[in-house]
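Recap from last week: sequence in, structure out.
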Amino acid sequence: METARALDVLAAAHDRLRRVVAGVPADRWGAPTPCTEWTVRQVFNHARLGQIGYGGAALGEEILPVEVRFNPVDALDGDPAELLEAGLRCAADAYAGLPAGTETVRTPLGELPVWLGATAAALDCAVHAWDIAVATGQPSPLDEDLAAGLWPVARHFVDDVREEYGVYAGAIGHRFPTGATSLLAHMGRHPGWRIPGTPAALAPLQPHFRRPEYATDVARGWWPLALECHRAVVAEFPAYRLNAVKQKFGELAFQASPGEGWTRAEDRRLDEIVAVFTERSRTTCERCGADGAERRGGRWILLTLCGPCEAAVGSDGRL
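Predicted structure tokens:
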């Protein structure tokens, strides 16, 4: 890829992130995102710090440590548009200002050809624009032209970065129909990700979530199991705190802590309680609640299903 084309891709990614951030409703900054441990605010801060990191590295400045970039604060220190613009300008101006004939550039990923460094910055920006968009109910900003410009760098380094830093979810091993959806899957994101919601049947769990906007994300067949788990935990830890209630690798992930000031013994006891329900989930159909087993059936995701539900669930894994 030529440097000029790479700079166009970077500008397009910046434009997508600007538009998405401008479209975030005021009450959605704390919403959950496809980056399962991060809110919209945290993804935003990570994305803008990433652009500062690429720009600063290109200018020879000290590279932001991994622990800073990958532990973004859950707060906004000013107007989001202004904060973002400062980060985007840092990367855009640094790459646009490289002397003619420059062949390589310093990046947070090491010394790279200029086109590869610019496209790596664009990939980070564009994928997080998608994260924010789907988490806030906006259309995907990742069109086919932009995806085509990002694929060369995704193929070049994502697997290596995933292995070395552990910063991307595993690639989804299912074929998706477009370049954009395939790129998302390569980056560990399911293109059909949806905003989680807590059904009325699980309302007793809601006050225990660490953040009020968090919600359960399990199918109907596991609702009774999640509710039983909640009752067992709350009986011993009335003030317990929830981080997530979701499906993970074909089993119920009830991620909780005992509450303020907990001890290691209390944490181990809570894990013992939850383990009983995790084990039961491995033989409970998450779609209907009947007896089930872990099945992949050619899908990208491992599900626990009964025979009839296995036949009814398509290749996209939607329940």
